[in-house]
Amino acid sequence: MSSSVASRVGLLGPWGGSDDAAVDIIFIHGLTGNREKTWTGKYGIFWPKDLLSKDIPDARIWSWGYDANIPDRPIIFVVHSLGGIVCENALVLATINAEQHIKQIATCTRGIIFLGTPLQGSGKTRWVDIGHRLAKLIGQEKNKDVVNVLKENSPRLKDLADSFANIIRDRAKTESHIDVVFFYEEFGTVVGHIVTKDSATVGGYEAQEIPADHVDMTKFVSVADAGYVRIRGVLKRWVEALEKTGKIPPNSGINVTQNIQKMMGGIVAGVTYGATTITSNYDTNKMDGNS
């Protein structure tokens, strides 16, 4: 945390009452606020301290600060396997969410690299087949949870894929387009290919292979590893493009990691225990705040 941020976060005070005061009164500012400036009026009167502490001497007065800047620092996700479904769901939910700090996650998302994510469960590849292979791979073929989640939620997963595709298309028409690249596994595991090329890629978008199986496609030991070189190349290309267009502010403040962490936690729980949070029927009107 930078010194400038540290100087405005945490509790400031107390003012007024002693340690055995009857009550603590804590002020909390809003978005883009500040623990002092929010409560300071004309002539520099910081009224919780300068006024209230004198009028309510039996109370201790505090002001709590947190970083409330709404940065526009771009976010790039790199996601593997079912983590890509979690990411898709997060983006859909964030897009239609009315809360600014959640919607901000979608607004700031500018790139997603998918690594072996089962994006299409129709046609030759069914979601349940992917579930069976995943279960076998992790030695849980007798555990029906993975298979059942994918089987029972196949329609929702299809709707989620459609909703995600709609968002990508809508954003492509704006300055805040989302770049996507799909990487697929070149080799099979002991139980075969977990996610086939057909399932891991989407027509019309860039796709590259990684010379590894589903597990090892995320594991690199050298800057010379082919998979690393390819992923690094995509990331460098995106970052350089964002820098050239001025989409990365030099001092954009704290990023939205905390918001993402909270949101992802809930979504992962939903996907793991029945995919109850998967949202379908993405409505572009909601994205524009018209409903």
UniProtKB/TrEMBL annotation:
<protein>
    <recommendedName>
        <fullName>DUF676 domain-containing protein</fullName>
    </recommendedName>
</protein>
<dbReference type="GO" id="GO:0005783">
    <property type="term" value="C:endoplasmic reticulum"/>
</dbReference>
<dbReference type="InterPro" id="IPR029058">
    <property type="entry name" value="AB_hydrolase_fold"/>
</dbReference>
<keyword id="KW-0496">Mitochondrion</keyword>
<dbReference type="GO" id="GO:0005739">
    <property type="term" value="C:mitochondrion"/>
</dbReference>
<keyword id="KW-0256">Endoplasmic reticulum</keyword>
<dbReference type="GO" id="GO:0016020">
    <property type="term" value="C:membrane"/>
</dbReference>
<keyword id="KW-0472">Membrane</keyword>
<dbReference type="InterPro" id="IPR052374">
    <property type="entry name" value="SERAC1"/>
</dbReference>
